[in-house]
Amino acid sequence: xxxxxxxxxxxxxxxxxxxxxxxxxxxxxxxxxxxxxxxxxxxxxxxxxxxxxxxxxxxxxxxxxxxxxxxxxxxxxxxxxxxxxxxxxxxxxxxxxxxxxxxxxxxxxxxxxxxxxxxxxxxxxxxxxxxxxxxxxxxxxxxxxxxxxxxxxxxxxxxxxxxxxxxxxxxxxxxxxxxxxxxxxxxxxxxxxxxxxxxxxxxxxxxxxxxxxxxxxxxxxxxxxxxxxxxxxxxxxxxxxxxxxxxxxxxxxxxxxxxxxxxxxxxxxxxxxxxxxxxxxxxxxxxxxxxxxxxxxxxxxxxxxxxxxxxxxxxxxxxxxxxxxxxxxxxxxxxxxxxxxxxxxxxxxxxxxxxxxxxxxxxxxxxxxxxxxxxxxxxxxxxxxxxxxxxxxxxxxxxxxxxxxxxxxxxxxxxx
Length: 416
Hints:
The protein has helices at 11-14, 33-40, 60-63, 90-101, 117-129, 152-161, 351-363, 370-380, and strands at residues 49-53, 73-77, 106-112, 134-137, 166-170, 178-182, 200-204, 208-216, 220-227, 232-238, 244-252, 259-267, 271-277, 279-281, 299-305, 328-331, 382-383, 395-396. The protein is of the alpha/beta class. The strands form four sheets. It has a seven-stranded parallel β-sheet with strand order 2-3-1-4-5-15-16, sandwiched between helices. It has a five-stranded antiparallel β-sheet with strand order 10-9-12-7-14, with no helix packed on it.
């Protein structure tokens, strides 16, 4: 089916752009005691390069020397080469958090062509060529993996990262917008969300909705959106792809209609994941709701918690395949100077906190491998110790408070 061009590229933001809320003082990044201690010790991320991949860079030049460094390296990987194509400052807010935490780190800013994995991977490749040790991305693209952390895009991303770069992603705000599990057919071959229920009602949150289905090879499904009042099909898409399969239906909301989702088996069977952007689901499962890129084993996914360390209801959960997801959580919302009237919330504000803290830690021993930095971040987290929780990972972000006389930690793993 056809749909307006303005809808393309908006989907990645619908699940990650938070609603502005008042921030408690505890959520302000400038008040995180462990970070302030590192700053006082003169450790501010010098020598580190951090890339922020996002689609919202409107007005980024005006932010230079204010909430961003005076100089950054920016590049668009969109077909039109426009870094400011979208009317959004989402990326600026993410970059401000990174810069607040690691003020002496060098920043790279980039976007990519919507719905085009090769363009996204080109941005990652460029970031690595520019020396980025850390890449932060607070966007989600549910159709780019099989929902279990696998697929060709993840394979290429892992190859580009190696063990020299750490990719940090938001876990996503899709806990109530996701369903995952085994296909359970009725006699007609339609999936039952619950016994006897073949329609999963969509509860709109915006004027545009995207419904995306992903699964491993071995089965083929039809994704169907119906008008529940008239019984008419609004859109239909058959899953296709190599390595992982994907189907999507996107449409504009008519307030006089009610919408539902059906999944019909064409061939085979197995597990699948359904993620909705722009609406919630009547029947949802929070478990396994972390989408690409956070679902990948090479990616560190960061969820969102409140000031008490409790998962916020929207924050996506693990596990994902065999990976313990998310790895960490961060307190949100966060006060930002670029948009002082509204705090920055959602898991969008969580990932850049991890990126900034990783830069502080890594700068003390720049020869460390990415896997060691990742391990140290998770080990320093507060709340769970070595026990993984599918809601908040190994705990809430926190930097180690004790360092050796040389300013480094004592975990082995440096590149010699």
